[in-house]
Amino acid sequence: METNPDFNKYMDRWYDYPGQWDSPSRCGLKVIKRKDGKTLVIATEIYRQNPGTPVTEWCAPLATLLMHELNCSPENFLFVEHTPDLRSKLDFYGETFDLVTFEVRDNQLVNPSWSRLTTEQVDGMMEG
Amino acid sequence: MKFKLIYPRWEKLEGQTIFNLPPHGPVVMAADIPENVEVDFTDENVEDLVIDDSPDFVGISMMLTTQVRRGWEIAGQYRKMGKKVIFGGISTMLHAEETMTHADSVFLGEVEGRLGQVFEDFNKNDLKKVYNFLSKPPDMGLIGPARRDILKKDLYYHKGFRMVDLFHASRGCIYDCYPCAVRYLGGRGFRPRPIDRVVEELSQMDNNRLFIVDNSLALDTNWEKELFRAMIPLKKKWVSHTIEDKDEVLDLAAQAGAWYVYQAVFDTSDYIRNRIKQYHDYGIAVEGTILLGLDNQTEDDIKRLIDFLLEIGLDLAEFTVLAPFPHTKAYSDLLKQGRIFDTDWNNYNAGKVVYHPKHMSAERLAELYQYAWDTFYKDEPQTMKMFNLINRVVAREIADDTYAPRRRDLANLSFGKEVR
After folding, report:
1. For residue B175, what pLDDT is reported?
2. ipTM of model over 0.90
């Protein structure tokens, strides 16, 4: 596993994906196989280190890709979007977590909707 | 072969002084069009578009989100006549998927070194649906000089006064600002043009007054200093976005002809107060750009900010409300929170509220936006403040013998239309 000072509790590797117009894109990734059989994926937006499409704008194709790669079914797949705290003077770059739910069409995840999670809720989800 | 290049019109913000500047995207794009192609350019903001059968191929260049619907409409009319239409430009990239449904082809990314292939494909009736160069920036040495010969220059005068010409010395940006899409459009790296190419292009420009449209000049100190040193002998007078706050840089900028800068004013801190004073100390005027409706602004914050602007002696101020353009962090955040209620791109003009602000209603933000304009310009209207700025640059031009008098033959025209 690649080590990097940017990696943390919610991100333990980079994940490269084809973004919009196949532009090379990258996010942080953590995958947890939970005791209840569900797979929790945390995809972290890494801003300047992501050369391509942001996670939010590509989350349905990205989640679909990950779900298939991890051999998950939609009902056992949990997708959380994470934005890290950039320690900016502006408060738009604080740490956030959102649980993203999707409609399923032909085994593809579409029409995302986001629900804000607290850090404690995410930690609870990670423990399964 | 005749290529019709069109810059669609957009609705200007209500109540604000209209200045139509010669567009930059189309002239930069035209520089890469093969020499054997005749380019016929129409800027719909200053002249009527005549849609007829004469062009072989049609290009629509769009910078603003408020141009896209008009661009699609124009494309529809040409396509009904059997003409092939290609789209390019910043807002084509921001709205690419939607634009594809109105186009024969969309060009994404920067054109240098690429349009020869596009025209060859057109000639072979093999135009691709998408030319995607978004992640493939060209060699910066290939850029320019822009083809300003395609512009009908007399249309960019107001009562005999010539508007500034637009110019760029770099692309991309190292920052990732909340409302900005440059990271998507121009990449996350700073990409300067070679200084000798910049000087070559500037030397060819017959307009002494410029707007250097680079996202920021404050991205690389050494480059900035080198650029300003190279510009000093040209005696141009120019407007730009932010210049770095180092005294040595500001001194060189002033010598190089810095006239006024657009400086974001986002709070009432001493940092901002000192920043404005520092520009003024070097004789550089400041137009504050003030974004209203961010999640950290309450009504009181906005009112306090406007009082602050008057205190610090800004020369001009431009107020906008947050417009969540696609491919920005603002868009991602508001989308996730389900706060965007208006997706009519014609309303994304940074003067209309298209989302639910955090601390007030959309209607209240619209009122505060109007309050901001009215309050800042209550004692001295915008046209008078602009007139003062023009007087300052005229004095400098007279002093260094670069002053071009007002065109008497255009004194009764404003952007091509008769005025009293």
Report:
1. 83
2. no
